[in-house]
Design a protein that fits this description.
alpha/beta; single chain; 386 residues
């Protein structure tokens, strides 16, 4: 659901925002570059509760993902990925939020469960906030500005910060600031349209930055909607996750390694991804389901998390690595943007799934293209946590 500047690689250099020439159709909201969707991902069997075929434009499907992606220097696919069912299936209730998560439903493809060394998240209603070190114009923020931003995130009561890439000095500047405030990091390895070859150096960036000390790293996320945006197929992503995990383990990191995609991609790729991920993760954006109102956002996210946790047929933890609600733009059926609607939706998500959700985003991403629904720049929600 993000129309944002995409970083082709993590170089730390300032890059210009993405252009809208070729858009990939996405159904989520993240802070990372959108990827094209593998043809097999659009096959029948997708749960309509989380995904509806992207609207087609004349030259390309436009993506509605809110990925805070690193600005890229060359041709960039704009993403506005979103998961939005045309109808509301009985298995995914969207009634008013309740005080607890729904009980797990029966599901899916069993596979060997890799051991997860730690359990991120909290037992409370607030865990993590997304952060992209970009200016309103899509350049890199100064270290002093990053310090102020991270101090504000800490003051809001978050215990962790999610990064999408290693560019713009994200590891050094953000890492130093989070250390000052004793915050954990959910680190991202961004896969751009250049594919895995452009992402491998980010693994080296992480290892060099950590110098053997991974105490502050809560999770490593390899790719953000990379299958959905067709930057890589599921098998190639699984192989890259496996090799990345081996490299990080050899360097001393023992925490969980995973990837994140919209729910329908996770549902379709379980047989390939389950053997290599330590925890299950998805970007769950209730706004892109036209049957979900702001007051029902918490129930929708909670039910999606419950289903996500069953996909590998074991007890691995499940996380919502990107979620929120826009405060401006056009309505998507029952999903209406607005300041009050955003407050209501965020409150509902916090109440029902906040301890396992990453809120998107810290501030409005004005470097992004507004998108079809004119919502891509309007997901900043930090004002609701002060």
């Amino acid at each position: 659901i993000t129309v944002s500047p995409v970083a082709a690689s993590a170089t730390g250099s300032s890059q210009s925002p993405a252009s809208s020439s070729t858009a990939a159709a996405t159904y989520s909201t993240s802070s990372s570059p959108p990827l094209p969707l593998e043809s097999s991902s659009q096959s029948p069997g997708i749960s309509s509760a989380y995904h509806v075929p992207p609207p087609q434009s004349s030259s390309a499907a436009e993506s509605f993902s809110h990925t805070a992606t690193p600005p890229s220097s060359s041709s960039v696919a704009e993403s506005s990925s979103y998961s939005a069912p045309a109808t509301t299936p009985s298995s995914i209730p969207i009634a008013s939020p309740s005080s607890a998560l729904a009980a797990p439903t029966s599901s899916a493809s069993p596979s060997a469960s890799p051991s997860a060394p730690s359990v991120p998240g909290t037992s409370g209603s607030q865990w993590c906030m997304t952060y992209s070190p970009y200016t309103e114009q899509g350049g890199c923020k100064e270290p002093d500005d990053i310090k102020v931003d991270i101090a504000n995130i800490a003051a809001m009561g978050f215990s962790s910060v999610r990064l999408y890439s290693t560019d713009c000095g994200g590891l050094s500047a953000v890492g130093a600031a989070t250390a000052t405030h004793k915050l954990k990091l959910v680190l991202g390895i961004y896969i751009s349209p250049s594919g895995i070859s452009g992402a491998a150096e980010q693994v080296t960036d992480i290892i060099t930055w950590a110098s053997g000390d991974y105490a502050a790293v809560e999770m490593v996320v390899v790719g953000n909607e990379a299958i959905f945006n067709n930057y890589v197929d599921a098998s190639s992503l699984a192989a890259f996750i496996s090799s990345t995990k081996s490299t990080l383990r050899a360097a001393g990191y023992t925490g969980p390694v995973t990837t994140t995609e919209p729910m329908n991609i996770m549902q379709n790729a379980t047989s390939v991804l389950c053997p290599v991920v330590d925890v299950l993760a998805a970007n769950i954006h209730p706004f892109f389901n036209p049957a979900v109102s702001a007051s029902s956002a918490g129930a929708f996210v909670a039910d999606a998390l419950t289903e996500l946790a069953t996909l590998c047929g074991d007890t691995r933890e499940a996380y919502n690595l990107e979620t929120g609600w826009p405060h401006g733009g056009m309505a998507n059926g029952e999903a209406v943007p607005g300041m009050e609607e955003q407050r209501m939706a965020i409150e509902a998500i916090r109440g029902q799934a906040g301890g396992k959700s990453v809120f998107f985003s810290f501030v409005d991403d004005l470097w992004k293209h507004p998108g079809d629904l004119n919502v891509e720049q309007s997901w900043g929600c930090s004002q609701l946590f002060t």
